[in-house]
Task: structure prediction
Amino acid sequence: DLDAFFRKGHEWEAQLCAQLETLELLLEAEGCDDPIGLLLTDTRNEFYVHSPSFRPPMFPHLHLPGSMHFTKFIPDFLRVEVTTQPNGIRTYTWQVLDAKASKFSKESHHLQITYYYIALQEKFEEYLATHPEVSVEFQANPYGGIWLPSAPVPQYFPLLHARPIVEDLLRIQLPALLAKQMAEVKWHFNPLCSTCEFQPHCETNTKKHQTVSSIPHLTFSQKDFLVGLINSARDSEAIVSASSSSS
Result:
């Protein structure tokens, strides 16, 4: 059920935190109003910031409509490596890692981490612009990581490949979707809908029309595949019916 779905994820994340705490690599940021300021106070050369919360991104480089607003975002972990340059300036190289209690990584995981990566670039640049007294450099690791229970270390993937997809979603697809009336939008009800403000509408629509979204744990791609099969079957039945009538 839905509670078990989220409980499994929370338990895996807590297990990783315990491991990092044992290795003295954990920096807990849950509830902190200034996670970047917090990580700057850490004197270790490597550590993992857990559950840092950031204010909503604006994405100024994408020139989004003024009516679009985002919520705060909270990556599971930021892996931080600190080096000191010959001139004494400290460089903080950060990397986004997300804990997923899945058997394997999914495309949606890649897109989520890439979204965090784009938003965090904005936040680190914003921090330096608003804190001129801070003499440090921030660098983004070009690889994101997915931490699965089946692997001792995260699975890394290049963020460069998914970035155009996420930026196209934010700049083109999402504004077009938000401009539609609710009746025009294709919905797929699934467990992750529990935190969405449109969840009651989607659940009611799914039950009322008995759509394939009623099937538990159906992914978006599986739903589209089934809908395609159903439509093809209906088209075939229509052709057979038309042939029988004409003869």
